[in-house]
Design brief:
By secondary structure, the protein is mainly β. The chain contains 2 helices and 30 strands. The longest helix is centred in the N-terminal third of the chain and has 5 residues.
C-alpha cells in the first residue's frame, strides 16, 4: 500500500455538464476538496498511485446542518491519469455509511446504507481522466446520524499498473504540490489491506513511516449531492433475486400504511414462481443489501423484522404468473389479529417478499423480491 511517491502533476478538467458539480434544486454539494465546483479550466491534482486493488478511499461529510434526515442523490469520484490520458478504465464499488466514530485515531464506520454492487449486481466502471458520477435516486441512501461517509473501493485497475510498482491512473486528491497537505484530520479515509480503515493524514505504514505527505496529501476528490429529508411515497430499492424458472418477483403497494387504520394498505407481489407459498416481511430500521445465501437474492430489510402470515401460492407451476396480495393494515391495527406488529407512526417502513423455490441452486432454496419503502401514517 502506498509504496509509490506522490506526484502532483495531473490535470483535471471538470466539465460543467457533469451533474455532480451542479446538484439539483434544493440540494447541497458535499465535498472536502478545495477545487472549484465547476473549474473554468484545468486544475492540478495528485494521483495517489500507491492505492492498490482491494483498497478504498473515503470522505467524511458533516450533514447535520441539513436536518435530522438527509438523503444522498448522487456520488462521484475522481479517477485520474498522471499524464491526463483519457479512456483508461477500472472497476470500483461505492459504499455509503451512516455515521462514524473514532478511537485512538482509528475510525469505525456506522451503518452501511448502500452497497452499490450488492444492490445492483454490478461494479461501477470508471473512466479517466474525469469525475465519475452515479445517480443514487433508485436507492436514496438516508443519513440520520448527521455524518455521511462516502467510500469508493478500487476493485480492478489492471490497465494502470500493479500494486508493487504503483498505478499511473488512480483515485486522486486536490493536492497541488508544495508544503502541507496533511490536514485536516478525520475528514478523509483510506482502507488499507490487512489493516482496515485509517486516516491517511496520520496513518503510518508498518506503524513507523507516515505516508503523508510523501505518498498521500490533500483531500480525496469524492463528492455527493444531498437533500434534506427522506423521499416521500413508496420507493422501490434493492434487486430481485432470480428463481429456478427465471422469475424476478416485484413488490408494490396500493393505499397507505397506517399504524391504526383497519385496512387500506394492500401489498402486491407479482412475477412470483407459480404455486409457491411465500410471505411478506417488514421492518423500520432502514435498508441493507446483504447476500441471501449463495444465490442471486439480497436481504434488503435491516433486522429485526416481522412477518405476515403464510401466503398461498397461485398461478401455474413452472411459470412466473404467481401473485400475493395482503392488506397489512388489516393485520396490525389495534383490533386486528397482530397489533404488536404495528409500525411506529411517522417512520419509513421497509418491506420485502420471501417465497419458496426448492429447485433454486442456491443453498437457501428460497428467493426474495426487490424491496419497498413507504411512509407510515398515524
Amino acid at each position: 500500500m502506498l509504496r509509490t511517491a506522490l506526484s502532483a502533476a495531473a490535470l483535471l478538467a471538470l466539465s460543467a455538464a457533469l451533474p455532480a458539480q451542479n446538484c439539483g434544486a434544493g440540494q447541497t454539494l458535499l465535498k472536502n476538496d478545495t477545487l472549484p465546483n465547476v473549474p473554468s479550466g484545468s486544475e492540478t491534482v495528485a494521483v495517489i498511485q500507491g492505492l492498490c486493488e482491494g483498497e478504498a478511499a473515503g470522505c467524511v461529510f458533516d450533514v447535520s446542518g441539513l436536518g435530522p434526515s438527509v438523503s444522498l442523490t448522487r456520488a462521484s469520484v475522481g479517477y485520474i491519469n498522471v499524464a491526463s490520458a483519457a479512456g483508461i478504465t477500472a472497476a470500483a464499488n461505492l459504499k455509503i455509511y451512516d455515521g462514524i466514530s473514532w478511537s485512538g485515531g482509528i475510525p469505525t464506520l456506522g451503518t452501511l446504507v448502500l452497497d452499490w454492487e450488492a444492490a445492483t449486481g454490478t461494479s461501477i466502471q470508471l473512466t479517466s481522466s474525469s469525475l465519475n458520477e452515479v445517480d443514487l435516486g433508485a436507492f436514496a441512501p438516508t443519513i440520520t446520524s448527521g455524518t455521511a461517509v462516502v467510500t469508493w473501493e478500487m476493485q480492478v485497475n489492471l490497465l494502470a499498473g500493479d500494486c508493487t510498482n504503483g498505478y499511473t491512473t488512480n483515485f486522486a486528491t486536490d493536492f497541488a504540490g508544495g508544503g502541507g497537505g496533511c490536514s485536516p484530520t478525520q475528514k478523509n479515509l483510506l482502507f488499507v489491506l490487512g489493516e482496515g480503515w485509517r486516516d491517511p493524514a496520520t496513518y503510518k505504514l508498518a506503524g513507523i513511516f507516515p505516508i503523508c505527505p510523501s505518498a498521500y496529501a490533500g483531500n480525496w476528490i469524492i463528492r455527493a449531492c444531498a437533500t434534506s429529508g427522506t423521499p416521500s411515497g413508496p420507493v422501490n430499492y434493492c434487486t430481485s433475486g432470480t428463481s429456478a424458472n427465471g422469475c424476478q418477483a416485484t413488490i408494490s403497494s396500493i393505499g397507505s400504511a397506517s399504524a391504526s387504520a383497519g385496512g387500506g394498505f394492500n401489498v402486491l407481489t407479482s412475477s412470483v414462481e407459480g404455486q409457491k407459498d411465500g410471505l411478506v416481511f417488514f421492518g423500520q430500521n432502514g435498508r441493507q443489501a446483504n447476500a441471501w445465501g449463495n444465490g442471486t437474492s439480497f436481504q434488503c430489510v435491516v433486522p429485526p423484522v416481522k412477518r405476515s402470515g403464510l401466503l398461498a401460492g397461485n398461478g401455474t407451476s413452472g411459470t412466473c404468473f404467481g401473485t400475493y396480495l395482503v392488506d397489512l393494515n388489516g393485520r396490525w391495527c389495534p383490533t386486528c389479529p397482530k397489533p404488536a406488529q404495528a409500525p411506529t407512526p411517522g417512520v419509513r417502513l421497509q418491506l420485502q417478499t420471501w417465497y419458496r423455490d426448492p429447485l433454486n441452486t442456491s443453498n437457501q432454496t428460497t428467493t426474495l423480491s426487490n424491496a419497498l419503502e413507504v411512509d407510515v401514517t398515524p
